[in-house]
Structure prediction request, 193 residues.
Amino acid sequence: MIKSELVQRIAERNPHLYQRDVENVVNAILDEIAGAMARGDRVELRGFGAFSVKRRNARVGRNPRTGTHVEVQEKSVPFFKTGKELRERLNEGS
Amino acid sequence: MRQNLTRADLTETIYPIVKTSRRDCAAIVDAVIAEIVETIAVGEEVKLSGFGSFVVRKKAERMGRNPKSGEPARITPRRIVVFRASRLLKARVSKAVPS
Prediction:
């Protein structure tokens, strides 16, 4: 499912909403989550999961094509931890 | 400084867009999240351009260890959600300092 399909499905289930509004809502939600992570904040959505930011130390990497060493600077990366409810739903009966 | 964003914040985010009651806005936020969750729950991939994608992967059974007692333990086969951030999201987050 891609974003446009997500918008379409939500609009179908909610006939009182304009599809264009749903599109703006989906974009605003994703942008707000990304913005929170860009500030280093956590985003916790019950039933879904939690988005957070993890620090990665500087390291010496290697260009896989040429084999030369390159310094990789310290950076932060986005991280998602699946919520309990979703994790359990994916593993029902096992 | 805020450190944890929740559904309540997202409700405020969309309030100016849909111009309806906060209760309706909260329901819309829930609907968006539920649609994503339901799709992942049936094993379908969710790709949100500019944000990232959620994929369900199967993990085989393996032997692990009970970290407390040190005893070997069987880890059952399971399905996990893998989130892969888009290039854009990685770029936005790279300079962030975790709070």
Summary: Chain A has two domains: 1-41, 47-94. Residues 47-94 of chain A form a domain with the HU Protein; Chain A fold (CATH 4.10.520.10). Chain A touches chain B through 52 residues (CB under 8 Å).
